[in-house]
Amino acid sequence: MSEPTRESMDYDVVIVGAGPAGLSAAIRLKQINADLNVVVLEKGSEVGAHILSGAVLDPVGLNKLMPDWKEQGAPLNVPVREDKFYVLGEAGSMRIPNAVMPRLMNNHGNYIVSMGNVCRWMAEQAEAMGVEIFPGMSCSEVVYGEDGSVKGVVAGEFGRNPDGTPGDSYEPGMELRGKYVLLAEGVRGSLTKEVFAKYDLQKDKCPQKFGLGMKEIWEIDPAKHQEGLVMHTMGWPLGKNAGGGSFIYHLDNNQVYVGFVVHLNYENPYLYPYAEFQRFKHHPMVAELLKGGKRVAYGARAIAEGGWQSMPKAVAPGVAILGCGVGLVNVPRIKGNHNAMLSGIEAAEAAAAAIAEGRGSDELTAYDDFLHEDGPIAKDLKPVRNVKPLWSRYGLVGGVVMGGFDMWTNSLFGASVFGTLKHNRSDAEATGKAKNHTPIDYPKPDGKLSFDRLTNVSFSMTNHEESQPSHLKLKDPAIPIAVNLPEYAEPARLYCPAGVYEVVGEGAEARFVINFQNCVHCKTCDIKDPSKNIVWTVPQGGDGPNYPNM
After folding, report:
1. Has residue 350 been placed in a domain?
2. Cβ neighbours of residue 38 closer than 8 Å, sequence gap 6 or more
3. Which CATH number goes with the domain that contains 226?
């Protein structure tokens, strides 16, 4: 198939992704030099449509970017008023006293927010400064120069047939070229993966680790609502099967965010993360809160959890990786948006300085140095670097006790008795063989507190044009039935929180079906497939979930 002829547009900086990192970079570039030509390309139908986060926002990044954000009307309206931590058993709970929690777990000064709405507001600020923002523009290719540097991206390709050939209404898209390209795609972005591989940016680093975060928004009985309350739980229903936990955040308008995170390094291929989330809501403490309420939205996304020791080199010639693409989440705090903003600010400052010096298409080493030296991101991530590996090695009780001790020693003395522990294998490699594990019997959803996957997916407002090629690719179409089914019970049927994958038929008649229309773009399949056979790519622009205020 011959390469299509494309028009091109030139900018100073091309930014892929209108999340907190990409928008922070765009705003900071214009603050430094209003004459810089900056474009932001967003694959969602609008800014915020693909943004899903807890979220309790530490405003440190926003304070640095726009100190007058309150006066400018930023949607940070619910300050955290109280923290509660619980360990759950099947029928009861035990509250952990706040006094024994490391100081970094205190949410005083933070805000319960919709990051989708925060990003919508940030986009308004950026556009008022002259940033061009194009939603509905999936970036499907990296454009390289003859010298091997990144020169831009291809965006806005539409109209391919299911077999990949150009259809009657085919539009080849455009090349948007820049002196620098900033990739702010979020977790496991397709262009970010390509850049990692081409320039070997993960060399000498631990493999990145991930979690699957699922979230519902509920409207509850006003008598039960406690605006500003932040709750986190560990333990039931996951137990020894997987690491993870929950969050319940009381925002305004009698709404609560109910979320559940499953660490994707679990071994049992029969584990069903979505069903664990639904079962969690039947815990007496949670069920009492939600009783009489109604779920109004659902979504899911992967979370980068590898922390300090998994952070790759973040720059290559002509390109820099921002935010969750680098893996800047503080796992015990369940926070990464503040670091994403800080990364965007610093990448913008490095790019603006380079352009002012007449440079372009080289490495923004100042940005990479900022990430890996003792700046604010390092000070946030280094003290908690051992929490994830300790939990992975010693389970809930041992991992939490030792992780808490490690955080205390880091907070008090600036050092860890464990040094820096390593992540030894990817989440895909952690998946065990089906013969060594027992299937898990999950209760059927009751339609009041718990719901089946496809019903919940309808509350994500997900839509994909069915006439396009599937954006979920198989490296080898034979592997799901020939390898994954007999050896791993084909776990894609279970780990996907949107019911995209199924095995239809039995024996010689079995076939693997991909219902890509259901995909909420969480990227779990690209992470957890035990044969590393599934590749997540972008669908045509505007497709996917349309989250209201996630």
Report:
1. yes
2. 11, 12, 13, 15, 26, 29, 30, 130, 131, 132
3. 3.30.9.90
